[in-house]
Queue: 2 jobs
Job 1
Amino acid sequence: MGPDCASHICVAHLFKPGRPISGQRRGRCQHAELFGSGRFPAPSHPSVSARPGDAYVTTAPEAPEATDAIGEPTEETPVAHRFITLRSILIALILAVGFSVLIPWNDWFLKNTYLNNHYMPLGLTLVLLVMGMVVNPLLGRFRLLTGEMVVIAVVMLGLAGVTSSGLMRMLPFMMTGPASVLPTNPRFANTMAERGEPGPGGERGPITQWNVPHQLWIGIEAQGDIDRNDPEFRHVVEGYLRGMPRGDERDTLRVTHRSIVTWEDAAGQKHRQLALAGRQAQYHADDPQVLNLDDPMTGLPFVGQQADRQIALPEGNARILAIEAPSLPWYAWPSALLAWAPLLIGALLACIGIAGVVRRQ
């Protein structure tokens, strides 16, 4: 090829690449003279450019430019998949509710290996394996996207910080622990509370005011010392820290604080009463639905007795028909949780705000 044909594609050589080349002494391809002299008609293909006396060259056709409906050029954008979808949110919520019920029973009641804790929780790993190896192949083209599985994993990781080795493992101990620790550490109690005048024997005066928000703690009254021997304290605080007695067999239940007793008096009339002792018995001394276990005449003979036992009362012998075990003290927690609510809600909003700041918009 000549110099002109070296940088372009000669039409004649393109269709007849084996044809010899001449006219190189003039610096042009011989076929340029043929097309330029009019002996051959100039090609009309739009990819071929020509002018008289010069070589016809071809140029590679450009790809058509993308246009919209009215013919304006448009930019091609990659297809973006949404990962926060309705099904990913529903699956995450269903798993969250299921694990919220299963985790306390497995971790703390059965005392098995924790299901959803640490940075690679067992429950989350199992869920992702089942989704990737079982669920997705069955769904076919409707399979879960990687981003949707990430959304589910993030919700499960957040759940691990609440129901397992996180909030629900630490917060209840912070709410009940001070009531158990302060009586054995007078130095802390004297610093955190103000006391009245000492007694005649030099004994410490009763607590008149707390210098800290005692509403955050369960088992601490606004005034007065913490009585660890009070039945209500043993039921609420010690019952949580050390565990309540298990088993509801008929031959092991006995009449105790917060148990429900069904008994029959000497006249054959049946009674169903809530057994109370200590401060709670004093607060409800006039309630006919309460069996005051501190009353030496009508309540104390019931203490420690089992069902089908005869009890000697001033009106005659009574018989215990049934005993129901003390229920969980749910009533003691709402007020303390309400006091912790500003801190918990504030921390949650702060985490959401941080996530919004670091998220790529």
Job 2
Amino acid sequence: MTTLHIVRQSAFTTNDYSQCLQVLGDNDVIVFIDDGCYNLHHHLTDNLTDNLIDNSNNNLTDNIENPINIKLNVIAQHANARAIKINEAVFTQIEMADLVSLTFENDRVITWQ
């Protein structure tokens, strides 16, 4: 069962993102929106991407014992409005219409706010 995790808050001010990372499963998708875009440059994201290797289409695959795929997305307009640089090797830039599509493509949706 895949889950779409919508991260709306900065990990610099709340622990929602940390809780999100604790429940990630295989083929889950994370979308950073609103102030959640600040997490693109948070140490928790650095730790996540350091432990996972980049696959095609910006999927991250955990190469430890239980392989999992995680896709990281960011609403480009929200990051740009906050002057946040997006590393396109790690994050896929999407629009709000893409987020709507993702809600239908995944089994569950959790909004972290």
